[in-house]
Amino acid sequence: MSFAKRDYLLEREREVQDMWDREAIFQMDSPKEEEKDDYFSHKNKYFVTFPYPYMNGRLHLGHTYSITKAEFAVGYQRLKGKRCLFPFAFHCTGMPIKACADKLKREMEEFGFPPQLPLTSAQLSEEEEGHQGTFQWPIMRSLGISDEEIKKFAEPLHWLEYFPPLAKQDLKRLGLKVDWRRSFITTNTNPYYDSFVRWQFLTLKDRGKKAVHHLLSAGQPAEHGPRPGLRGGGGATGVHPHQDEGPGAFP
Asked: How many CB atoms lie within 10 A of CB 95?
C-alpha cells in the first residue's frame, strides 16, 4: 500500500503552516487613525473565542470536536473578507492540578520512587482502598511521560510549564487560526490575568452582587476539597458542608 499521496499532503500542510507563521497571517491589530476606512468598520469585524481547556493533561478528541466550530466560523468569516480575531488561553486555576500533584507526592511517600503500586485490594489499607484504580502515576505514564519527568509534577507549577506549550503545539498543528500573541494562562503566575479577575470580583463585591452560599458536596479530605457529583461510598468520606464564595445570582 502506498502512502505517497498522504505524505505529499502532509508535507504541503507543513509548508503552508510555516508560511502562516512567517507572514503572521492571523495576527490582527487595531487600525491607526489614518487607516480607518470601510475595511476597519465595526460591521467588518469578527471575534471568536473558545472556553479555556484545562491543563491537567493533553488535549483530546473532545476538544478537537468542540473547537472546530470556532475554527470553521472564523475561517468562513475570513474568506468573506472580515477582520477576524481568535485569541486563545489555557485554564490552570482551581483544585484539580493541585490535587493531582498532591496525589503524586503521596504515592512517592507511600510506595517509593518509582512507586511500586499495589495491584490488589488485599494490599491496600481501608483508607487506600477507595483510591484503587485512581492512582495518578499510571495516568501520567499513559501520557508517555517518563518516571523522572513524572516526579516533577509533584510540584503544581510544573503542570503550568509542561502542558500549555504542548497544547499550543497541537493546536498549531491542527491549523488553528489564532493570534498567538494573544495567548495566556490563568492563575496568579500571570499577574495581568490575575489582576483582571480580582477586579471583577472586587467590583461585584462593591456593587453588592457577590454572595456566599452554603451547599452540600461529597468531600475527600485527602484531596483537600469538594468532589462535585460524587456519591457516598467508593472512597468518598460522605457529604459535608462546603462554603462557596463565588458570585451569586445576579438580578
From this structure: 13
Residues 137, 150: Cα–Cα separation, whole Å: 7
Give phi and psi for 225, each to the nearest 5: 165, 175
Q: How far apart are CA 68 and CA 201, in angstroms?
A: 32
CA atoms of 70 and 28, how far apart (whole Å): 17
Q: What angle do CA 88, 65, 178 make, to 5 degrees?
A: 25
Sign of CA dihedral 192, 195, 197, 203: negative
216 with 237: CB under 8 angstroms? no
The three cell numbers of residue 162 are 509542561
Stretches where the chain sits below pLDDT 50 are 121-122, 126-127, 129-132, 228-251
Read off the pLDDT of residues 192-208 as tens digits, 9 standing for 90 and up. 989 998 999 899 989 98
Q: Cell 458542608 identifies what position? A: 241
* pTM of the predicted model over 0.90: no
Work out the angle between the directed axes of helices 95-111 and 156-174 (0-180°, nearest 10).
Answer: 120
Residue type, 184: F
Q: List Cβ neighbours of 127 (8 Å cut-off, separation of 6 or more).
A: 222
CA–CA–CA angle 26, 28, 34 (5° rounding): 145
Q: Quote the pLDDT of residue 39.
A: 66
Residue 184 in grid coordinates: 495566556
Q: Alpha carbon 189 to chain centroid distance?
A: 15
Handedness of CA 87, 63, 175, 90 (dihedral sign): positive
What gap in Å lies between CA 211 and CA 62, rounded to an integer?
33
Q: Specify the pLDDT at position 199.
A: 93
**Identity of residue 28:** M
Whole-angstrom Cα distance, residue 179 to residue 189? 21
Q: Tell me the three cell numbers of residue 159.
A: 503542570
